[in-house]
Amino acid sequence: MDPYKVLGVNRNDSDETIKKAYRELVKKYHPDKYTDTDLKDLANEKLQQVNMAYDTIVKNRKSKDYGYSYDESSYKGSFAEVRRHILNRNYAAADNILRNSTNRNAEWHYLRGVIFQKQGWYDQAYSYFEKAHLMDPSNPEYATAYSQTRSTANAYRSNVYTRGYSSADEDFCRLCQCLLCTSLCCR
């Protein structure tokens, strides 16, 4: 997916125009506007797409400033390709690129968190978002993902560990543990 199309801008637009379009879309899809509606998940997904698109454009333009040229075909194996795979919901390909990458910076951790989040693994996503945020606390994309996932991961943890187990269930589990330990010790 073309990041310029996501933001609704042209490749030749100024940095200020792109930043303005980005900010308008962030306001439009901000999660606070959709807290109690059915559109919350869709708005969150759109916001992530907007953030990824803007980040890709900014990084590409910075690389041009340093004498690098942006060419889609030569950008293989990079974080931009990972972001494209995520936008296309090809999480296995995105994860494969990340696992083979030696550049494990804040963006690497953020993108790994996005992959886990998209697959519903909020506890793992939270760990990666937290690491990305700690490595680069000034990045708003990482901060937003970290704060949004923190509450989801905490709710997930509390539900998993308190999911209707009674004391009888706990006693049965302890009995099984004791029998297993006894069996291992007596061998």
Structure description:
The chain is 71% helix and 0% strand. The chain is mostly helical and 187 residues long. Helix 2 packs antiparallel against helix 3 (40-65), helix 5 packs antiparallel against helix 6 (106-118) and helix 6 (106-118) packs antiparallel against helix 7 (122-135). The longest helix is centred in the N-terminal third of the chain and has 26 residues, at 40-65. The N and C termini lie far apart (60 Å).
Query: How many angstroms separate the termini?
Result: 60 Å
Binned, the helix content reads over 70%
Quick one: how many beta strands?
0
Q: How much β-strand is present in the residues? A: under 5%
Average pLDDT figure: 79
The ordered string of helix (H) and strand (E) elements is HHHHHHHHH
General form: elongated
Largest sheet: none
Cα Rg: 21 Å
Q: Which secondary-structure class do the elements indicate?
A: mainly alpha
The total of helices stands at 9
List low-confidence stretches: 65-77
